[in-house]
Amino acid sequence: MKKLLLTVVLALCLTACAGQETTEATQPETTQPETTQTEASQTETTQPAETAQPGILSAFTAQDLQGNAVNQEILKGKKLTMVNVWATFCGPCINEMPDLGALAQEYADKGVQIVGLLSDANASDGSVSASQVELAQEIVDATGANYLHIIPGGDMMGLLYQITSVPTTFFVDETGKQVGTAYVGAKDKDAWAAIIDQMLEEVA
To answer: Which InterPro entries does this entry report, sorted A to Z (predicted)?
Structure first.
């Protein structure tokens, strides 16, 4: 039954999330799927995000999908961390997750990790929605995106408030300082690999 539910959810994401408006400040709008050539080219365009600032993740609190506490210590010992902000209603986010899962494995021995930042699990009162977390875990399992996914704590809300589209992806070094620019929109595996290689050169 869960597999059937997830299939229906994914189908709805692919058709509905492009026009979905945010209902809470912590649920950013999703970028539109490729419906026209013009829209597709806009999705692929690199856009600087207002949230990309030095030291953006130098100190933070969060939890993983299993409820374990997470903070900036996850960055230590990693040359580069790719933070992919996504939402359960976002078709483009879900579509790129299999590629991100593969990249997480391929770049692990190069000191690179990928972290998913789930943007729609927090209610307006700051509590975490158990049903959203369960749905997120089902999506992770179905897409093979077997890297760390975190739910932001209160001190990360300012970051989410500034992100207006998902997926949004940015990179930080082991101190939490932003590396390069941020990227709005989904990309395929080869495109992300090229960007990761470029970011590795910047932290070398």
So the answer is: Redoxin, Thioredoxin-like_sf, Thioredoxin_domain, Thioredoxin_ResA/DsbE_sf
